[in-house]
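Journal club side-thread
Mid-discussion, someone asked how the predicted structure for our own chain would compare to the paper's figures. Pasting it here so we can look after the session.
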Amino acid sequence: MSDFQLAALIACNMMGLVLAGPLIGFFHHGRKISVLTKTLVLVSIILTAIAFTPESERMNQLGAYLFLLQVFLAQIGIALVTTLRSSLWRANYPAGHRGKIVVIIALCITLSRSAIVLLYTAAMDHLGFTYKDIYLISGLVGLGAVVFYSRLRIRGEKQTLRNAVNHEQAPIRLFAGLVVLKTDPVFGKFMAWQMLNGFSTMLIEGAVLVVIINDVFESNWLEGGLALTVISVLLTGVTGLVWARIYDRTDIYIMRFYGAMMWCLSRVILLLGVCYKSIEIILISRVITGIAMGCGQLNWRLGHMAFSPPEKDSLYMGAHVSMTGLRGIVAPFLGLFLYRLDCMGPHGLWLLGITAMGQALAGFGFLKMRQSSKNMLFNGNKTGK
């Protein structure tokens, strides 16, 4: 694939996240499990259909663009599932244990994911597996997930839906999931710092990292899978257990600070690995990345709950998901463009350094917000408000 096509593939994934915010308003008053299972059925059908899409010898032919469209549609469904799922977690899991419960779920997912990536990449190297085989199996497994999700119930959902209706003066529809960024200025500011943090991450973590691993080390599928996915994903699940204990005892600002600084450290080590062309240093950076992702998975899935009332949980999560998608669309194109510039040094060394500084700046931005919130609380108590 060319740079543009690789960036377009990653952007198709992220475009689905962008649309979650505008679309979530249409499902705000519906029963979340019903909407979630129906969405998963559609996603599973799309994934299965990818296996039967005609292949093209050149990526600019019809089959390639049909593949990109299918990925885009599937990601819309996954983004909606992610957004709706947070309502289930909030209602069914008590706040004091929510972090631990969610991270145990994530650990099961990441352990499975790591094993599957190793299995598939080895099969692609030695057994002639193609990407179509992977999508076919994924689609069938998705239908199995529908069965399990359909058996779940959300505690107090009837009352939550009534509260949502009673607290709204007008119907919530298109773009409702983005309006909260304006109506809740504290959450909007928090999302602004997170935009800097996430954008600095995605400039490298998507297409650029793929190109670095391919250009600098010329790795095979298995080595690439280890460096790009397996190590970081596996560490995400394992370290998430530790982060969950911290999450349940502290606030979202501190957690975001920890996450941003770990990402910064991983970028600095990645820079050294590229500079010395050492795959061992690269793998160390991916270990630190996994630790950062262990913190980030909790922040991303649960962080909005520090700002949102229960009846607006899906709207706040929708805004969060959309902001993730927005930066995810721009970052792969901009990242690859900057990576190819001569002024960024060999293999984008300066770009790696700039993104590390962006993550550090965002981390201290979260700390500043925390101090401001403490000052507001102190002044409010002092004046009797």
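Post-session note: The first helix runs from residue 3 to 24.
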